Amino acid sequence: xxxxxxxxxxxxxxxxxxxxxxxxxxxxxxxxxxxxxxxxxxxxxxxxxxxxxxxxxxxxxxxxxxxxxxxxxxxxxxxxxxxxxxxxxxxxxxxxxxxxxxxxxxxxxxxxxxxxxxxxxxxxxxxxxxxxxxxxxxxxxxxxxxxxxxxxxxxxxxxxxxxxxxxxxxxxxxxxxxxxxxxxxxxxxxxxxxxxxxxxxxxxxxxxxxxxxxxxxxxxxxxxxxxxxxxxxxxxxxxxxxxxxxxxxxxxxxxxxxxxxxxxxxxxxxxxxxxxxxxxxxxxxxxxxxxxxxxxxxxxxx
Length: 302
Hints:
Elements: H1 5-18, H2 24-55, H3 65-77, H4 80-115, H5 120-146, H6 153-159, H7 162-167, H8 169-196, H9 200-207, H10 211-224, H11 226-250, H12 254-287, H13 295-301
């Protein structure tokens, strides 16, 4: 039986209450991101900063912040492509870790939605099984997103070089307008891509598909369930906007702002992200005719 969004939200909330451990993948992702960032920062300093400092016999303790920035900029200017490669490696490793924990969270949500309960063993099993495929799917989606850069090419070409801009201010204004319009179109393209491909990672993990098949399946599920998917997407946008507005209001009072900053992080990790994953997982399962743990079972268990 097809469930409406209200039912999916209600039953998904019940699933979350029974399975608070679904927040663990998101907490672990944040912790591992901090560890990864620390390691890459240390390696970055060892590879790009310390060799130049040693070669020039500089004493960092005696440099002012302005002098340190000037020296650092000078040292890094000769290693631009190495730094770019270093950054790409960091992003790829981060995406791989994110893929593992996201696959684990979706697997836990699937088991909780179908059996009523889940455990961290499900996170490990689904994470290990789908991490490579989900990682490759994320790269494909990233490439599709970057393809939208073609919308900015007319603006870039119309602006020309700096000398032309200085000699012809009117052309500069026209070129900038075209570029801004291209960036706006690219923004809409990115939004459309993110919505149309929303089911891809869920299809990949739940159906154990390869990246290309997951994209095809995800798009097909979205096209068959546009109203339900857009309704859930709008609900999540409303939640995000409300939390953002509350944060803006809290920012006017220092004490409240500090409390809200921590509360916002906790709510996001413990409630918003797990619920979001559970809701999308349940919507996918329901729209594909999968058997789900019923509300009557929740009532009997409580």
